Amino acid sequence: MYESDFRAADEAYYSGRVAAATKARESVWGNWERYVAPLGLDPFLEMATHQNRIRALSGFAARVRTGFFGRGREVQSGTVSGQLSSIGTSIAMATGNNPTKVHGSDKYAPRLNQMLDGMSRADPATEKKLPVESDVPEWMAMAGKAPEATELIKSVGDNALIAFYFLLRIGEYSTRPGQSADKLTDQFKVKDVTFFKRVRGRLKQLGPRATQAQIMTADAATLRIGNQKNGWKNVCIHHEATGDMYYCCIRALGRRVLHILNNGGTGNTWLSAYWEKGECRRDITDKDMRAGIKMAAQVLDYPGRKGIPVDRVDTHSLRIGGATVLALAGYTDTQIQKMGRWRSATFKEYVRSELAGYSMGMSKAMRKNFDFVHVVGEGHTVVTDMVVGMDYDVLPQ
Fold first, then answer.
1. Distance between CA atoms of 339 and 240, rounded to whole angstroms?
2. Residues 154 and 81 in one domain
3. Are 319 and 129 contacting, i.e. CB atoms less than 8 angstroms apart?
């Protein structure tokens, strides 16, 4: 059963990735054709001189920069570079030659490279989102404990706990209005959750017939994801219970799975699903999660207590918050990278080093006098002074 599911997931991943890339490239190519037509140039630039090729490509890049082909506002240099690369790839696929690059190199032609470098320098500083601590998802989960809480509020709270501890991306546990069916990241489903119980000191997997009591007292759980936007497939994340009977990611997973199964859901049902009484199935959205996170940060006075404005707290704050807390707790880069399923060291960009916790104790440590000595010292000078006036090959006494 699982093998066939994973094979289908692989096929869906590759077909979705190809479809998304093809659609984007076709859109850029259409803009390029419309741009070069009045210039009297072939879009493949086969008959154009080198000077005219570069002028056409740089002119197109300038229009992309201004937002002429988009929403009418200036875009970052990365967007410009991406569209130039798309054009170059399309031409190279048809003619075997990429006019945007130096022949035999991955570098842009000098004039294009100079232009992109200038755009990069002029780009405004990126204002990245800031992390939150466990108090935010716990507050969101607490809202779900209220007698008047709706299933939406309960689902948002539970998924916030799960996202924080398992370092999830927003697309892995929520939906988005107008979301493309060929998106690269799968959402977690009920069948992706495996619960474990500790028996005589060893973890034992709970089977499909596990009771509600067993699920709600599980000691650990594993999440398996079929596809991710970074291309890693069938990756597992494992966590143990925190010890709290409610504010725990394992308890939150148990509540979600049981709610879904008790309302007619199956193993293929997303963890984002919920049912209000007497209503059909719904799914939490990124907007639902964003609203809950911002409300929690506001109530917990993040601006006053932590200097973190609410407008810099978003859905990504749960993922980077979990990673940052792990870093401050002393876990290694490798452990954090594996837990967050990052393929490279780019995850370090998410660990916000401007937080006070990173410099805690540094000034006191730097004030300590280690009484270090420059071991090279004056040895060379002293020896030279001793022997400079002596005859060659005579040892000093």
1. 13
2. no
3. no
The more confidently predicted of residues 227 and 218 is 218
Q: What is the pLDDT of residues 119-158, one digit of tens each?
A: 999 998 777 889 999 999 999 999 999 999 999 999 999 9
Rounded Cα–Cα distance for residues 269 and 256 (Å): 11
Residues 113 and 28 occupy one common structural domain: yes
Query: Helix or strand or coil: residue 197?
Result: strand
Identify the residue with better confidence: 357 or 248: 248
Q: With respect to residue 348, please indicate whether it lies within any of the assigned structural domains.
A: no
Are 208 and 170 part of one and the same domain? yes
**299: Cα separation from own chain's centroid:** 26
Question: Do 270 and 232 lie in a common domain?
Answer: yes
Q: Convert the pLDDT of each residue in 34-92 to its tens digit.
A: 999 999 999 999 989 999 999 999 999 999 999 999 888 999 999 999 999 999 999 99
- Residue 116 in any domain: the answer is yes
Rounded to whole angstroms, the Cα distance separating 123 from 308 reads 24
Q: Is 99 in the same domain as 9?
A: yes
> Which is nearest to 220 in space by CA: 243, 192, 250, 190?
250
Name residue 222's amino acid. T
- Sequence-distant (≥ 6) Cβ neighbours of residue 253 within 8 angstroms: 158, 162, 193, 195, 221, 223, 271
Same domain, 143 and 268: yes
Domain count for the chain, please give it. 2
Side-chain-side CA neighbours of residue 113 (13 Å):
9
Q: Are 280 and 172 found together in one domain?
A: yes
> By residue range, what is the domain housing residue 70?
2-122
Q: Which residues pair with 53 in a beta bridge?
A: none
Same-domain status, 61 and 101: yes
